[in-house]
Amino acid sequence: MADLVTHMATALLFKAAAGRKHTASFTLGTVLPDLAGRVPGIVLVKLVGFGLPIPEGLTHAPGVLHMPFGMLPLCVLLALVFPELQRPKIAANFFGGCMLHMAVDLLQHHTGTGYPLLFPFSNWHFELGWIGTEATVLLAPIIAPVSVLAWWLRSKWDAKGARGSAEV
Amino acid sequence: MLNSLRKLVFSDRSRPFVAVLIIGYLIWMGWAYSKVSTSRTKEVKACTEQPESCRSEKVFLALTEVREVGPATITVRKSTVDYVIAGVEGPVHETEILSVIATIPDSPDEPFQAVSWEHHPLRAWKVRLSLLGLVLAGGVTLASFRIENRRVVERG
User: Which residue in chain A is spatially nearest to B16 when comparing CA positions?
Assistant: First the structure.
């Protein structure tokens, strides 16, 4: 996993380029895989460190929410709390964010391991391994303000466009 | 067909059924993955007990926490399992994060032998940035969504 600030920044950059609708859902989608798939496992391992008898398998189980075939149903499940007509678009934006998260994570190198992209259908692991696991730490202070600026410029552009069409 | 599937999944009528189905599927998937991920730990344990069956086989221990630093060995924890490893050169300190590729020892009493290793000096900064990201995500959620008629709706 890359750091969450970088993940959120990539979401803003994507939405600045592709259109701002559902930015919040898309941005939360980029956080969701780590929030649902990594944080519970980290907490459980910490609890083991405190002497709690938690089986090893349980610490791995939440990891399925960091895999495409776990993310997709999770996004649909979360979208179910929204009004009926909004659900397909919200789920699509959550899942789009998750896929962007996965794309950023796949750039990393994890000492011979990788991500099980096709689980439960296959145990095949893959990663591109182009950058180290902490490379985004140095990138975050640059990409975060740039993404906010890009998204703000896009919102100004959209507002100007809307005013222009209203005047016509 | 896609349209009717979308209606089936996202309609109010099928909502409880879809929710139960998804939760059930995710529990099954988590159970299946825990089986797969712990099987490798069991394999390694079996190898250390009967080393002749997998001599010189390697284990990949990505992002482990250093628990103990001894004179000739270090103990790292991957998930809930501890591995004693020899051959990691250079300064290593407790609680640091280390990725190691090591060969399985020839007897259960011997340590794993490190083949290659990687330090992660920026790991603490990554954790801090991710905590900041969690706070920001909480802020985005509060600022961007509200509850209306027992449903979450996007603001704006």
Answer: A80
pLDDT at position A166 is 67
Cross-chain residue pair B132–A5, CB shorter than 8 Å: yes
Over the range A145-165, which residues count as b (16 or more CB within 10 Å of their CB) and which as e? eebeebbeebeeeeeeeeeee
Domain residue extents for chain A: 4-160
CATH T-level assignment (fold) for domain B2-121: OB fold (Dihydrolipoamide Acetyltransferase, E2P) (2.40.50)
pTM here is: 0.90
pLDDT confidence tier of residue A27, bands split at 50, 70 and 90: very high
This model of the complex carries an ipTM of 0.91
Whether residue B140 has pLDDT greater than 90: yes
Measured between alpha carbons, how far apart are the two ends of chain B, in Å?
Answer: 32
- A50-96 confidence digits (pLDDT tens): 889 999 899 999 999 999 999 999 999 999 999 999 999 999 999 99
Amino acid B14 reads S
- pLDDT of A32 above 90: yes
Q: Which of A34, A48, A137 sits opposite B80 (nearest CB)?
A: A48
A23, A15 Cβ separation under 8 angstroms: yes
Provide the residue ranges of all domains of chain B, joining segments of one domain with +: 2-121, 122-156
Q: Residue A8: which of B121, B123, B133 has the nearest Cβ?
A: B133
